[in-house]
Amino acid sequence: MYRRPRPGPVGRWMRRWLYRLTLLLAAGLGGLVLIAPHCGFLPRPDTLDRIAWLFAHDDLLRKISVVSAVGLWLTAILFFRPRSYDYNWWEQEGYAHLE
Length: 99
What we know:
Layout: H1 9-35, H2 47-57, H3 59-79, H4 87-92
Helix pairs in contact: 1-3
């Protein structure tokens, strides 16, 4: 069985912050989908107002955003999970095998 080498301090730091950043992006995207329809945006020539109006009124964009938020959440869980979920670390520290 392939065992991943123990990451150094930079690897642990980067994994932790990528996990947090990805979850924050997923929560922000999901929050924008939930909040935008209730804010009463009007179409104006400003780019940010157009984007907010689009999030408030376009159902396809909102559905795609929800699916993207779920994808970001799964990416964070699968690829950047914290060390407490890293079972190789659990076995390397001398605890019982989990298999």
